[in-house]
Amino acid sequence: MKLLVPVKRVVDYNVKVRVRADGSGVETSGVKMSMNPFDEIAVEEAVRLKEKGVASEIVAVSMGVAACAETLRTALAMGADRGILVETEVELQPLAVAKLLRAIVEKESPRMVILGKQAIDDDMNATGQMLAALLGWPQGTFASKLVIEGDQALVTREVDGGLETVSLTLPAIVTTDLRLNEPRYASLPNIMKARKKPIDILKPADLGVDPSPRLAVLNVAEPPRRQAGKKVASVAELVDKLKNEAKVI
Amino acid sequence: MDFSLTPAQAEIRAAIERLSARFDDEYWLARDRDGQFPEAFHRAIAEGGFLGIAMPEAHGGAGLGITEAALMMERIAASGAGMSGASAVHINIFGLHPVVLFGTAEQQARMLPPLIRGAEKACFAVTEPDIGLNTTALKTQALRDGEDYVIKGQKIWISTAQVADRMLLLARTTPLDRVHRKTEGLSLFYTALDRRFVEVRRIEKMGRHAVDSNMLFIDGLRVPAADRIGAEGAGFRAILHGMNPERILIAAEAVGLGRAALRRAAAYANERVVFGRKIGQNQGIQHPLARHWAELEAAFLMVLKAASLYDRGEECGAEANAAKFLAGEAGFRACETAVMTHGGMGYAQEYHVERYLRESLIPRIAPVSRELVLSFIAEKILGLPKSY
Predict the structure, then answer these.
(1) Which of B7, B18, B50 sits opposite A188 (nearest CB)?
(2) Strand pairing of A172-176 and A112-116?
(3) B2 lies in a domain?
(4) Gyration radius of chain A's alpha carbons
(5) Looking at the 3D structure of chain B, how many domains does it have?
(6) How are strands ordered across the β-sheet holding A139-149?
(7) Domain holding B53: CATH number?
(8) What's the complex ipTM?
(9) Which residue of A has its CA nearest to B69?
């Protein structure tokens, strides 16, 4: 079974994000970039399926500027077999990504697409769902456990009330939650081997997709700074402040 | 002239950064306190395949150069692991280079893979108590007895000998009075550290408590001739090949340690408020930190220049020595300033910079003193008379 795993290049999770002075977005020049952590979990899950003999090939795909090739190399070092880079300078929004992915799915015919549930930069949590809708495939989102039985994927999902398990008929879309697995660290020999694995480079036009943004970002601002706390002398004073100052009770 | 890393180098750097991040400052503080070898860290580095970074691919290594090894060691030290983390793996990175260059195919196949896998640890037994850097005057003897050599002598400042399984040992096989040149008559061995014949006595020291330094008392250790690396009497030449890589790597480690100190100092200066303002707003705090940043950057450029010369097979003695000198000094000054930036808290272990400062003395002193580096450069580069 062939698996497709999309991976996004995002600002590293350890970096303190700074908003650009003109409010057009966050600063990315000179900032350390890494693979979206939820996508790492997706790659790890795919590699484990391959190690179990369930999957036969893992294709990693990334989209955006040329440097996304390095994100693909990380996926290849973790165990993906080959990469596809859809190269564009256009800022990609979830619908454009989903449409590009649909075109790749039609070309590659994977049995399953495993995606991160969301990217830590824009927190959209949309691409997997959009892709499922475009393809008309079943989806299991926020997976904390994934079991393949024949042509069924059993996806355990973390929902408010506890754990819900859904059964999907393949081909299907799965999006990963934090507790699905703990991604491995790429070993040095695998990093070196990954540099010899193939990466195909495509343009959105090759896939017949117009990736232009549909949403306009009006402004990006930092959240207001946290105000200093206040000490109160008594419960009565606390209740008074909650009622009359904070107006929360 | 391109100063940027190749994509592969950048990726290795990022990977080792991530791996090192699993071992935080609290881990290293705990190891410094309990003096236990950082086994978990060593295992993680070995499992990641990084011990073999500069070893041949045929034996399970990555076949990369000292440049990549230097980038790796800098990142390990900079993670907060400092010299404790660096020294835990240091000797395994380049120490067996003589085996790569002068070992037989049988020796390479026998000796290199267990080291690269982390199944065996090695130590480097060259320095002796009474001779300092006058290596050719070393007194440890290896006397031929049938198919074996019998070793007797003392070694000092042998790192990791408490945990090492094997040692790279330099000993005299022909007495000084029977050789034409004093560099002749020394032989190199890579052999089991058999504790029945080698007493390993720990030296209590100022810092880097996690990685032991020792006196070795060797008495009647039998070493098979099959463990001799290269021809009998040609050991000095073999060991010389490891000297420049060692200087380059320890320089990279000093830069990493200095960078760890600067990172902590800058973070503290950005938080600590006195007289209603962050202390980092004062130029008296800013300028020393900025100066050390510049010094560390410059030293690292020299490290990479020396490494790149070495990897291209070119002469790099002056550059490797200069890198060691510059990085040792810059790393020390960065650590000292980091302590002073923290004020009283800099003296408290929980702020970690005092540990860095204690460790920063190591690359200033070892593996060669500042004074001998300068004497070497004065003689070889400036053409001045030899002074020692």
Answers:
(1) B50
(2) parallel
(3) no
(4) 21
(5) 3
(6) A162-169, A152-159, A139-149, A172-176, A112-116, A2-6, A57-64, A82-87, A199-202
(7) 1.10.540.10
(8) 0.85
(9) A188
List chain A pLDDT tens, one digit each, 249 residues: 999 999 999 999 989 899 998 988 899 888 999 999 999 999 999 999 999 999 999 999 999 999 999 999 999 999 999 999 999 999 999 999 999 999 999 999 999 999 999 999 999 999 999 999 999 999 999 999 999 999 999 999 988 889 999 999 999 999 999 999 999 999 999 999 999 999 999 999 999 999 999 999 899 998 888 888 888 999 999 999 999 988 888
Q: Supply the CATH number for residue B263's domain.
A: 1.20.140.10
Taking CA atoms, what residue in A is nearest to B48?
A187
**B387 within domain boundaries:** no
The answer as to whether B274 is a domain residue is: yes
Residues sharing a CB contact under 8 Å with residue A243, sequence separation 6 or more, in sequence order: A249
Instruction: Tell me, yes or no, whether B386 lies in a domain.
Output: no
Global pTM value? 0.89
Dump pLDDT digits (tens) for B184-200: 999 999 999 999 999 99
A218 at interface of B, judged by CB pairs closer than 8 A = no
B338: left (phi over 0), alpha (psi -120 to 50) or beta: alpha
Please calculate the CA angle A82-A86-A91 and round it to the nearest 5 degrees.
140
Residues of B near A (Cβ–Cβ under 8 Å) read 7-8, 10-12, 14-15, 18-19, 47-50, 52-53, 60, 62-64
Put simply, whether A186 touches B (Cβ < 8 Å) is yes
Question: Which of the listed residues B199, B233, B267 is the one where a domain comes to its end?
Answer: B233
Q: Which residues of B touch A197 (CB under 8 A)?
A: none
Please report, as a single letter, which amino acid is at residue B50: F
Pair (B113, B157) in one structural domain:
no
Kindly state whether residues B248 and B369 are assigned to the same domain.
yes
Look up residue B178 and give its two tokens: 């029977």
Q: Which domain holds residue B208?
A: 122-233
Of B88, B117, B146, the last residue of a domain is B117
**CATH code at B141?**
2.40.110.10
Contact yes or no for B8 and A195 at CB 8 A = yes
- Mutation pick from B5, B13, B18, B22 vs chain A, by most beta carbons of A within 10 Å, is B18
Are B374 and B247 contained in the same domain? yes
Instruction: Point out the residue among B11, B48, B49 whose CB comes nearest to the CB of A70.
Output: B11
